[in-house]
Amino acid sequence: LAPALVVTSRIRRLKIRIFALAKELDLDSKLLIEYCAKCGVQAKNVLASISPEERDQVVAFIRQQPRGGGA
User: Which end of the chain has the lower number of beta carbons within 10 A, N or C?
Assistant: First the structure.
C-alpha cells in the first residue's frame, strides 16, 4: 500500500470523541449525544469515544433525518 493509504487506514481505526465529531458535523454536542442514543450508540458525555463503525452508524442516522428537524 502507498504510505498515505497506510496512514489513512490507521487513522480510520482510531476512536473519536463525541465533541470532536460534533465539531466535524457542525452539531451541538448534546444533540449528537441524543442522536447516538436514538441509533443505539452509547455515548454518555462529550468526552466519550466511539469506534469508527459507530461513527459511521451515527452519521448515516443523522443523514436520514429531515433537514431542520430536531432530535
Answer: N
Is residue 66 a contact partner of residue 56, using CB atoms and an 8 Å limit?
no
Q: What are phi and psi of 51, to 5 degrees?
A: -75, 165
CA atoms within a 13 Å half-sphere pointing along the CA-CB vector of 33? 13
Tell me how crowded residue 32 is: count the other CB atoms within 10 A of its CB: 24
Q: How far apart are CA 66 and CA 17, in angstroms?
A: 25
What was the pLDDT predicted at 5? 53
- Mean per-residue pLDDT, 40-55: 95
**What is the torsion angle, in degrees rounded to the nearest 10, for the CA atoms of residue 53, residue 57, residue 59 and residue 65?**
180
Q: What does the radius of gyration of the chain's CA atoms come to, in whole angstroms? A: 13
